[in-house]
Amino acid sequence: MSPLKIKLGLIVAAGLMLSGCMQTATQFQAAPEASLKPNDKAQLAKARYAKVAVAEPFRRAIVDFHRKEAPGSIVVDSDNHYLYFVQDGGKAIRYGVTVGEEALAFSGVARVGNMAEWPKWTPTKDIHARIEGLPAQVPGGVDNPLGARALYLYQGNKDTLFRIHGTNQPEYIGASISSGCIRMTNEDVIDLYSRVKPGAVVVVLEPKAGDSPYNSKLALQGGGGTPY
């Protein structure tokens, strides 16, 4: 084979390899069906909200993770609308989230002080002050704003009143509109809930602090994920 043909072959092979890498980085997958219990399937089948597909950069993926939190910890990067569940070997499961508006957002270190499936919702006084006509309590179910699961964030023995929970507004994943809580799709929060242990550390990074797993907003936006 002539040197020219060999060179052309190498170029084509390199192009195919690059194409494969680019495709792999964007083939994000939904949470596995195995994490859904019979009641989850029954509740989700009754959902009246629009089943909007999450934008590709915020779909679930396994990514490299370069911070020092221990496996089993949760890290929330509000600036980039990502939640990381830290795993062994420098990896994390990355989920897209909705976070609070800047004036309402929580940041700091907490722990998972309580966990609930299809939780009831008791609006706080602040929420009642902002939204008129709310009931004192909303029973658990697919139409409840807390969705399928809730992780209650505590500092010491005190409930911070901030939660990681599901949502019946999946169209807002990747936005900053909540009353301070961290929202996930119901499918993703069910998956996260199945992995998290009570007492797990939750680190919510300071906004605009430049402190992210890659220390770069550009690096976080939708790239480098392995399908999961």
UniProtKB/TrEMBL annotation:
A Pfam family annotated for this UniProt entry: YkuD
Name the UniProt record assigns to this protein: L,D-transpeptidase
GO cellular component: extracellular region
Keywords, sorted A to Z: Cell shape, Cell wall biogenesis/degradation, Glycosyltransferase, Hydrolase, Peptidoglycan synthesis, Signal, Transferase
Pathway: Cell wall biogenesis; peptidoglycan biosynthesis
UniProt family annotation: Belongs to the YkuD family.
Source superkingdom: Bacteria
Annotated L,D-TPase catalytic domain residues: 72-205
GO terms for MF: glycosyltransferase activity; peptidoglycan L,D-transpeptidase activity
Keyword set includes Cell wall biogenesis/degradation: yes
Active site (UniProt): H165, C181
InterPro entries linked to this entry: LD-transpeptidase, LD_TPept_cat_dom, Transpep_catalytic_dom
Cell wall biogenesis/degradation in keyword set: yes
Organism: Tardiphaga robiniae
